[in-house]
Amino acid sequence: MSIGTLIKTIQDIMRKDVGVDGDAQRISQIVWLLFLKIFDDKEQEWQLTIPGYKSPLQSRFRWSNWAKDAEGITGEELIDFVNNELFPSLKKLATAAGVSPSGRVVGSVFEDAYNYMKSGTLLRQVINAIESDVDFNSSSDRHLFNDIYEKILADLQSAGNAGEYYTPRAVTQFMVDTLNPQLGESVLDPACGTGGFLTCTIDHLKAQVKTAADRTTLQDSIHGVEKKPLPHMLAMTNLMLHGIDVPSNIRHDNTLSRPLKATGPETGLTSFSPTRPLAAWKKMASRTTSRGSIRPARPLTCSWH
């Protein structure tokens, strides 16, 4: 099944559900389901490649144990499980003590997520469509996420999301080519949206990765902040599929809630690409005190768009 057909099939199923109202809610529902599917596929990979890997999820909350079986739980039993067991457990990972970094990622994704579907039978149909058509451990299927991602973005553009603007990939690619970040420099997008600038940066830096240590450096170099739950969830998912296994540096927060001086030399910031209007960043910069300006390892690079 083509990606366009898969997404349309899922959306058509959701339109029959009385709990899902409008494209924005349908997209949000698709995204959290895709995230759990992708995380489960990544965990299968980590169990083979990371000695002693232990899942941050209880066994019964892993996708492969409750969603994978096409004849698994459905109807009221499925809705009760998702609303009263799965979601509360995943949300707790954001704040619980002793949680692994990968568990924190799951918690941050789900702390503001919501299951809009009321029919467990329809939810099972959606899960089965995702499970039967996409395997993110398959290299060919993994590349398909880019198509899913672009389809979701196109739908977001027309979902009436309060005038939100999702930067075209050609623009983010041009920005990265212009900034030309180097491995070992830290890159921050303080309003990263769905992660388009950061994923272009990752692809740019991958050509400079030669050793395992370089790969670790790349993993630690990518930083982002996104205030809204849906773009944040998309950004986390997008980065995982671009090789950032645990995107714990992508915070669900509001950059404008703190002064610009907070992003100072101690952060090691070297490239800076905001996606908000210039006036908003000037306002944030005006909150800085006379203690001085940012002086990173090399001159701060800003690109306004």
Describe this structure in words.
By secondary structure, this protein is mainly alpha-helical. The chain folds into two domains: 3-139, Ferritin; 169-302, Rossmann fold (3-Layer(aba) Sandwich). It is built from twelve helices and five strands. It has helices spanning 3-15, 23-49, 63-66, 75-92, 101-110, 120-133, 139-157, 169-179, 196-206, 212-221, 229-240, 278-285; strands spanning 186-189, 222-226, 250-252, 269-272, 301-302. A five-stranded parallel beta sheet has the order 3-2-1-4-5. Helix 1 (3-15) runs antiparallel to helix 6. The longest helix is centred in the N-terminal third of the chain and has 27 residues, at 23-49. It is globular, with a radius of gyration of 20 Å. The protein starts with a helix and ends with a strand.
Features:
single chain, 305 residues, mainly alpha, Ferritin, Rossmann fold, 2 domains, five-stranded parallel β-sheet, 5 strands
Structural class: mainly alpha
Count of helical segments? 12
- If you consult CATH, what is the topology of the largest domain? Ferritin
**Shape by Cα distribution:** globular
* Helix percentage range: 40-55%
Characterize the main sheet: 5 strands, parallel
Question: Number of folding domains?
Answer: 2
Total strand segments: 5
Question: Briefly, what CATH class of the largest domain?
Answer: Mainly Alpha
- As residue ranges, the low-confidence spans are 265-270, 275-305
Mean pLDDT over all positions: 79
| Reported CATH architecture of the largest domain | Up-down Bundle
- Work out the strand percent: 5-15%
Radius of gyration: 20 Å
Report how far apart the termini are.
37 Å
Order of helices and strands: HHHHHHHHEHHEHEEHE
Please, what is the CATH homologous superfamily of the largest domain? N6 adenine-specific DNA methyltransferase, N-terminal domain
Biggest sheet strand line-up: 3-2-1-4-5
